[in-house]
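Amino acid chain:
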Amino acid sequence: MAKETYEQFRVDPHSKIRLRDFDPAWAGGKQRKLREDELKLEAKEHIQRNLKRLADAQELLYASNRYALLVVLQGMDAAGKDGMIKHVMSGLNPQGCQVFSFKQPTDEELAHDFLWRYHVRLPARGRIGIFNRSYYEEVLVLRVHPELLEKQKITPPKHGNAFWEQRYENIVAFERHLLQSGTVIIKLFLHISKKEQRRRLLERLEDPNKHWKFSAGT
């Protein structure tokens, strides 16, 4: 099961993938036919078994004071990024862990280069940092909404393929620098179907306890 899970979710370096080739409803193997409640219970038990291992690993990370860990979470709205932080990371000591959610940049952040606001929130040695959304938004959301680039006061004001290729190179160089400096990066993309996303968004509207999660801009 562990080997199958690893192979199902890991993307090899320099490989090209298509999200449509990955089943967002995958739940542990083609032959496993469990009800949704059974799958959730199994997932919770699996998380509980690993919380101790996670806590022990964090203590070693802090004691060595040589490396930092950066967990980058990406996913569409309602993909479950907040839930993952709340449940999967619940075994971490909050004194050695920081979570940052990146929304619209502030005026101060817009006055710097596009990677600045991420750089100043990187975890120190011995600590764990979790980015809820990240610098990848700079080549995802901004490609869909290029008008947002105007706020960054980019010079020159041309946003063709060469511009985006340069941004990709900047991000790769940024991550290479972090690795060389002792920061290990784990990048996770939470994949859900459009049908499931719609269900979750409607649930936020129908459940008063989840209204706070809904935004008209979603």
User: Anything to note?
Assistant: The chain is about 40% helix and 10% strand. The first helix runs from residue 2 to 9. The chain has one domain: 2-10+21-213. The CA atoms of residues 195 and 201 lie 10 Å apart.
